[in-house]
Amino acid sequence: MPPFQTLIDEHATEVMAVLRGAVGRSDADDCFQETFIAALRAYPKLRDDGNLRGWLLTIAHRKAIDHHRARGRRPLPVAEVAETPVNDPEPLDGIWELVGALPPKQRAAVTLRYASDLPHAEIAAALGCSPEAARRSLHEGIKRLRKELA
Amino acid sequence: MKTAIDRLAERAAAEGLLDVAYTRTDSPFGPLLLATTPRGLVRVGLPNQDEEEILAELAGRVSPRVLEAAKPLDEARRELDLYFAGKLTEFELPLDWQLSRDFRRRALRAIARIPYGQTRSYTEIATSAGNERAVRAAGTACGTNPIPVVVPCHRVLRSSGGLGGYGGGLPMKEALLALEGAHSG
Q1: Residue B2 with chain A: CB contacts under 8 Å
Q2: Prediction pTM value
Q3: Is the terminal CB of chain A with fewer CB neighbours within 10 Å at N or C?
């Protein structure tokens, strides 16, 4: 296994971006800590270092889902939208806010697919469902986003 | 982002998940890499040694939980700064010897006992380590010293008075001996 610091150097920025999309800016930092602590705990027992990025993003999404479960399934309050700085440099930020308002499974499927570029099988593994169910969540999520954007 | 990563290192240490912490420190010879376990200083990388290689070796031989974190190495940095300024003659920080074994470890422990400003021969070190004929092995112990400077292998010379070798290059060995006011040859 490479030194754990390599994972931080290479993937921390992306993990943070994905978590911001999944849980919003204000809670992303806590989920980030949870993600990397869980990864660090499991790291010495990891057998396969072939896809460390996918492994980290999978953990990040589990943490995001845990976070939403803990907060209940209520829709995100509108006030959260205003937390984004006016001159935010990220052009996709508006999209991620819409993604953040999707139901948990759809939100996770969409971020895993489009922010993390994971294939359906890995999305399914991350969500603990069948690839078919992952595909369906992704499809429903995209359909809803299209409607919102139209 | 940097704050988030600093917080992570702190939390990892608090939860007992920081097996190897490393940082860099300036020295008159260039940057040194310092690595510690919860037990003590485990590795000093000299300026001419490859940092990535050292970190990969630590991940393989100690634990892959290797994180960059300055705080666990504050005391090592403080003592090294004082040493290079000529204001410290004996390191007090705890050491972790796990990267050397058997004869080599005994040789390095013997080297750690050489007082500041004094020198010993490879033969004397071999004898202290329990085998006076293992002079070449004593040389290898010096050459593979994981904690140079702090474990002062620069204080070991040939019986003839010749400098012998040094992982950080002979000019560094000479400079360290000069700093300590030791005569090399």
Answers
A1: none
A2: 0.78
A3: C
Among the partner residues B11, B22, B66, nearest to A37 by beta-carbon distance: B11
Distance between CA atoms of A82 and B113, rounded to whole angstroms? 64
β-pairing verdict for B41-45 and B32-36: antiparallel
Asked whether the beta carbons of residue A4 and residue B55 sit closer than 8 angstroms, the reply is: no
CA distances, B15 to each of A9, B21, B72, B116 (Å): 21, 14, 14, 38
Vertex B178 angle, CA B175 and B183, to 5°: 125
d(Cα B169, Cα A138) in Å, to the nearest integer? 59
Task: Give yes or no for A3 touching B (CB within 8 A).
Answer: yes
Q: Convert the pLDDT of each residue in A56-67 to its tens digit.
A: 998 998 898 888
Name every chain B residue with its beta carbon within 8 A of the beta carbon of A3.
20, 55-56, 58-59, 64, 66
Active site residue B153: yes
Report the alpha-carbon angle A123-A128-A133, nearest 5. 65
- Closest CA relative to residue B118, chosen from B171, B157, B169, B85: B157
The residue behind tokens 């509108």 is A78
Could you say which of B1, B20, B59 has the minimum Cβ distance to residue A16? B1
- Interchain contact, A3 vs B66, CB within 8 Å: yes
Question: What's the token pair of residue A113?
Answer: 């697919």
Interior CA angle at B65 toward B64 and B66, to 5°? 90
- What are the tens digits of pLDDT across the range B5-63? 999 999 999 999 999 999 999 999 999 999 999 999 999 999 999 999 999 999 999 99
